[in-house]
Amino acid sequence: MAMIVSVDRLRLAARQTLPRWLFDYLDGGSYSESTLHRNIAALSEWRFVPQVLGALPQPDVRSSIFGRQQDVPIVLAPVGMAGMLSPDGEIKAARAAAGQGVQACVSHFSIVPIERIVQAVDPDFLAFQLYIFRNRDITRDMVSRAWDCGIHTLVVTVDTPVTPLRERDARNGFRNVSRLSGRHIAHMMVRPRWTFRAARAKGRTIGNLDRYGMGSNLFAQAATIAREIDPHIGWDEIRWLRDTWKGRLVVKGVMQPDDSAQAGRLGVDALVLSNHGGRQLDGAVAAIELLEDNIKAAGSVTEILVDGGFRYGTDVVKAVALGATGVMIGRPYAYGLAADGEQGVADVLDYFRQGILSTMTLLGAPDIAALRDNRDRLLRNL
Ligand SMILES: Cc1cc2nc3c(=O)[nH]c(=O)nc-3n(C[C@H](O)[C@H](O)[C@H](O)COP(=O)(O)O)c2cc1C
Predict the structure, then answer these.
(1) Which helix (H) or strand (E) holds 184?
(2) How far away, in angstroms, is 287 Cα from ligand 1 center?
(3) Which of 49, 134, 302, 346 could form a cystine bridge with 96, CB 3.0-4.6 A?
(4) Is the CB of 160 under 6 A from ligand 1?
(5) Both ends of the chain: CA-CA distance in Å?
């Protein structure tokens, strides 16, 4: 049974654990943060119509994501610098996920280098998220490193040609200054447990990037990396990756149905509809709002995942009923990681699993196919 009672509670625990500049980096969004809130509101607009008589107590929510069978339709989203939330955080998160048969997508901006993650976690449970850098030699090197590690799913994120202002980061001097300041130290002094652990930990830089000389400390790297992402990428780059990457190719961050159709034509295996958790285009729609249009456009060969604002098992069931292959979760597991390391992530996954199962039972849906077949009876947008 999950030890946690809600993601909101876990968020508070993370706030009490992390120095303010780090919590705000994790928790915040761009400008007014309206998209951050919209993600949650849009999910709550879908309401269930219960179907209780004849319900089955043990629903089956197995589904295939990125070519792998999973017990629950959830993947851990790439979260940059997750290893700052807890020492070796990327390893802890991926290990907790693999322990429950769930895949984790490692961020390009991982504190623990991928070579070290695959020593601890079966790469079959891992995907690697790539940003296309202006420097194509670095980009190519990163892609080969992922493949050489035995990772066969590449998730290329395309929604970050620029990084808009994130007010909380700007206020805290994170990602715009290149050294630790008195203000950061003040935040750390009131979080002695985190600070003590971080001081003893090995990873104090974005270890995945260390070899490319983008700054000698975390603050310098954090200030540089957004500028390294190529703002001019287009379909040529997707075509290039499709031609060179022998494994499954996933594009993350599209929202326009035309783009999904084009990705399908180019042989992209899966899409993640996403507004980057409300951290990019402020005022953007939530992915769930455009899910059905994108499914229609992409055709049946493409898997379509969604992310942004998923906080309950009920949210996951809504997305799957609407036709999503699965859901990525970002902040929920990151809060768990900050609050309680590997166990915290395992608890979050367990919490989602229990929520998904009870929801399916209350909808009288024995499996995902039944849920989709009865979508009009079971779901209303109000
Ligand atoms: C702290 C933080 C860092 C993130 N870093 C990345 C990243 O490096 N690459 C990426 O593709 N998405 C990144 N994202 C976006 C997530 O992959 C995901 O799209 C988003 O968190 C989903 O929304 P949710 O947090 O409401 O679940 C990040 C999100 C957060 C909160």
Answers:
(1) helix 182-189
(2) 13
(3) 346
(4) no
(5) 32
What is the block-wise mean pLDDT of the chain (382 residues), using blocks of 10 residues? 81 97 97 98 97 84 95 97 97 98 98 98 98 97 98 98 95 86 92 93 89 90 90 97 98 97 96 98 98 93 94 98 98 98 97 97 95 96 88
Q: Which residues participate in catalysis according to the annotation?
A: 276
**Residue 292 contacts residue 323 (beta carbons within 8 Å):** yes
Residue 141 identity (one-letter amino acid): D
Residue 134, classed as helix, strand or coil, is coil
- Ligand 1 within 6 A of CB of 125: no
The dihedral through the CA atoms of 209, 212, 216, 222 has a sign that is: negative
Q: For residue 200, which amino acid is it? A: R
Q: Which of 279, 306, 311, 349 to mutate to test ligand 1, by most ligand atoms within 8 A of the CB atom?
A: 279
Hey, which CATH number is domain 7-381, 3.90.1750.20, 3.20.20.70, 3.90.79.10, 2.60.40.10? 3.20.20.70
